[in-house]
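Please produce the structure of this protein holding heme C.
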Amino acid sequence: MVKALIFIVIMFIGFQFITIDTKENLPTNPKDEIAVSNDIKTILKRSCYDCHSNNTTIPWYGNIAPSSWLVRSHINDGRKILNFSEFNKYDVEKQKDLFDRIGGAVVIRMPLPSYVWMHPKAELSQEDRDKLKAWSESEYQAR
Ligand code: HEC
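Below is the modeled complex.
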């Protein structure tokens, strides 16, 4: 029993040496940020920006392995797929594709459930979902 405990403690300490490099804030040119109404911006900032922008907030458990691996890979992967702070740098095809995906993603998958569990305020209401869907659809049509 004691050995098992010592093993777990040593493993936990060992985990801390395996880190994922994620910068909380990356340099951003305001010109590259997606242009949206204040209404939509408020929703995106509240529910999406922690993984899909250059300005995120890494919570305390984002600094402790193994939860840090999850938090940081979500941010890195989220930014890679869709970064609202870099949106104007994407070509029209990519923007169109992303608006198409946003409409689908906000039906159920986004924001990620594990994130909402720790950030209840980020949960999208039905009204938020409808707004994001209508917005992404009209942006899709406009391109
Ligand atoms: C906790 C981090 C996190 C949050 C918050 C989050 N996302 Fe994501 N998002 C990801 C990750 C990671 C992926 C890539 C893996 C996946 O598709 O599950 C992704 C993928 C996506 C995709 C691509 C899906 C596809 O079909 O390829 C879209 C679009 C998207 N997110 C939109 C949003 C929107 C809109 C919000 C806010 C309402 C949001 N996300 C909130 C982490 C997040």
